[in-house]
Amino acid sequence: YCRRSSIYVLDEPFSDIDAVNQQTVMQLLRQEAKKRGVVIITHTFDFVTAADQVLKVGDHHDN
Question: Domain segments of the chain: what residues?
Answer without folding.
Answer: 7-50
